[in-house]
Amino acid sequence: MRLDQEQIRKIGQKQIVETIRLRLPHVVSLFAYNISKTDMSVYSLLHQNTAETGNLWMTLRVADHPLWLKNAQQVSIDMGSPADLIRLPTAISKVFSCDMKAKNCYQMTNSELAVLELLDNCQQNGLVWAVRLPEEIFTAFKKQPLDLQKDFMQAEVFLTNRNNVNALLLPFTNPCFQAQLAKLYGRNLLFSQFSSSFIETFTDKPMDSTNVRKRAKTFRLATTDHS
Q1: Do 109 and 225 form a contact (C-beta atoms < 8 A)?
Q2: How far apart are CA 160 and CA 217, in angstroms?
Q3: Radius of gyration of the chain (CA)
Q4: What stretch of H or E contains 84?
Q5: Count of alpha carbons within 13 Å of 116, Cβ hemisphere only?
Q6: Residue 220 three-state SS
């Protein structure tokens, strides 16, 4: 029986998730994951909590195409297209041959948890945050990199209607808040969608950010707030 592309994608993603589970160090757990509905991408949220390292998180991206975000706080494994899953176990083991204290690991600060809480409350009330992308980046649709420290920070931010961007566009200027959005987006903790010339960011279908907030609050003493 010949498999269609969707079946191949689902089988491949299932294999990716199981490979990640099997290759994780015993002190690291697979807390949550997102899978793409259009390609082979799998985003995993990994968690480690020990007396030595404290409460650490890592976003691991396994995909069949390069990451379009620059300065994103995540580890990316590009398996090529078609995805070469045979070398995936070795690639994952290589990631964890380094210390989880590396720059791509992070702790959730109190201010970041507050932003997640705000975004969640907004989307529950039919509101989302929209970022107007430069035209050349938007029209390229992930074929041109988006620099989270430059392009994202220079873009306009609006509070808008979740179902109709044109129904409400309330400009919002706060560089600190925008930097938090960029950081959380780069960790894949925000669900997003393209609409008009915007990226809409909210926590309707995040990588389990609600439970991240709960888990981080449980280990509040292990978090640090640099705000």
Answers
A1: yes
A2: 29
A3: 18
A4: none
A5: 26
A6: helix
Q: How far apart are CA 177 and CA 180, in angstroms?
A: 5
Q: Is the peptide bond before 145 cis (omega within 30 degrees of 0)?
A: no
- Check: CB of residue 33 under 8 Å from CB of residue 44: yes
Query: Is residue 226 scored above 60 in pLDDT?
Result: no
Q: Is 22 left (phi over 0), alpha (psi -120 to 50) or beta?
A: alpha
Long-range contact set of residues 78-84: C-beta below 8 Å, sequence gap at least 24: 79/40, 81/40, 83/12, 83/40
Q: Coil, helix or strand for 25?
A: coil
Q: Band of the pLDDT at 21, cuts 50, 70, 90?
A: very high
Structure tokens at 100: 């989880």
Q: In the structure, what pLDDT confidence band is assigned to residue 208 with cuts at 50, 70 and 90?
A: low
146/138 Cα distance (integer angstroms): 9
Rounded Cα–Cα distance for residues 193 and 141 (Å): 11
Pairing assessment for the beta strands 156-161 and 127-132 based on DSSP bridges: antiparallel
If you average pLDDT over every residue of the chain, what do you get? 82
- Output the six-digit token pair for 87: 């070398």
Dihedral in degrees, nearest 10, Cα atoms 14, 19, 21, 27: -160
pTM to 2 decimal places: 0.82
**Residue type at 68?**
W
| Backbone φ and ψ of 190, nearest 5° | -120, 135
**Hey, what long-range contacts does 94-100 have (CB within 8 A, 24 or more apart)?**
95/60, 96/23, 96/24, 96/25, 96/28, 100/28, 100/48, 100/53, 100/56, 100/58
